[in-house]
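Suppose you are handed a protein chain with no further information: no name, no annotation, nothing but its sequence. What can you learn? This example shows the usual starting point.
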Amino acid sequence: MTLHTDYALRMLIFLAVRNGRPCTVNDVATAYGLSRNHLIKVAQGLSQLGLVETLRGRAGGISLARPPEEINVGFVVRAMEDDKAMVECLKTDGGACAITSSCRLTGVVREALAAYLSVFDKYHLRDLVRNREALAALLGIASPPESDLVGQPGAAVHEGG
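A reasonable first move is to predict its three-dimensional structure. Written in structure tokens, the prediction is:
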């Protein structure tokens, strides 16, 4: 997994823990100790996928565009990864490996990649933030009053066990 995908998942977790309250990219960068410039690119990518809303202006920021239960982790990983070619023969141009036409590694790598992605497919963002209070404490996110949560994406998510 690339850092870009890792940062995208971390940003989504941060936004889900905030229960729909907007924040800035700088807030995310500070909480995780990551590059603001890189996170701006991540936010743009997530926005293009329809997962994050961006609001300009003084009261602007970013927030989830969908509830956490509607954001599949496998979808995010596939969408954010530029190149899933783990070996040269899986590159779109076929690569330049001398044994590609007779190699059985290609099938094994495809099977492994499919298994890897299928694990991510089992989970949604909601599953990653079931321990919301612990995450909020670690990320320095204050819990909003319950009244602030009415009508917010993900706000009605009260998971049990």
